[in-house]
Amino acid sequence: MEGRGVWTIRAKEYPMLRGDIFLLNNSEHRAIRTVFPPEPLVMEIVDFEPQLAWLNNGQLFDERLLRVFFQRDNSPYGNRLPRTSPASAEIHTVFDQLAAELLGANAYSMHMSIVKLLNMLVLLHRAYYPGQEGEEQPAGREWVPGSMQAVFHFIHEHFCDSISLEQLSELGRLHPSSVSRLFKRYSGLGLSDYIAKLRIKRAVRYLRETDKTVIEIALLCGFNNNSNFYKAFRRVTGRTPGSFRSPE
Questions:
Q1: What pLDDT digit, counting tens, does each position of 94-107 carry?
Q2: What is the C-alpha to C-alpha distance for residues 148 and 53, in angstroms, rounded to an integer?
Q3: Of the residues 85, 224, 239, 244, which has the maximum number of CB atoms within 10 A of its CB?
Q4: Alpha helices (H) along 67-210
Q5: What is the mean pLDDT of residues 7-26?
């Protein structure tokens, strides 16, 4: 980050200084209140979906690495990891390496990008929870990785089909209210919003890559009529389906 300003996150004000690192999840309300001249405020952002934690049945990612986005109340840092933190310089180095992989055209860039992202999450976890890496999850915690892995995997395999909370509850062997609560904690979105986002992402691909009609795409992506499809599309993208069609 370059420049200076003030960021309000969850009603708390954070000074924004060059080199600071901010952590945010989808549900945290934030607003940049002040930018101090003469330098412009420039931020580099890594935006990723928590579904990465469940790739390959969770063998690559440990979902506990996502704690820094949802459980920071007992950490001295909150949403901001200051540039003075011992971990800050190393995280910035890995960030630059991640950006180079994403912007480059090297072989296996996506694989290396995932490795770099994992590297950053490990460094953040060590900074926020020193001495806790490698510990077993305490008994009695609401964190249920095996059950939620099954839920997320099923959703990503069947999001264009009709999915009920009861179905996911049975799959994860959890009470429906627990599925809803844990799902929002791990994904940052409610179940219906998360599924809608996946469906619209698939719809955008169809719009760009096929000549199927809008109603055909809506039905393929799990919407039972055009009206629901258009409402969800506008809510997720802020645009109309037609705006994603390639020009003739």
A1: 999 999 998 887 88
A2: 11
A3: 85
A4: 88-103, 109-128, 145-158, 165-172, 176-187, 191-209
A5: 90
Domain ranges of the chain: 1-135, 145-189, 193-244
CA distance 43 to 21: 10
Residue found by looking up tokens 């009709």 in the block: 162
Q: pLDDT of 128-178, one tens digit each? A: 888 665 444 433 334 444 667 788 888 988 999 999 999 999 888 888 888
Which pLDDT score is estimated for 195? Answer: 94
Domains 1-135 and 193-244 agree in fold: no
Token readout for 51 is 């579904």
Check if the beta carbon of residue 207 is closer than 8 Å to that of residue 200: no
d(CA 127, CA 68): 10
Here the tokens at position 24 are 């945010």
| Distance in angstroms (rounded) separating the CA atoms of residues 148 and 150 | 5
**Does 210 score more than 70 pLDDT?**
yes
CATH architecture of 1-135: Sandwich (2.60)
CATH fourth-level superfamily of 193-244: Homeodomain-like (1.10.10.60)
Q: What share of the chain is helix, strand, coil (3-state, %, to 5)?
A: 50, 10, 40
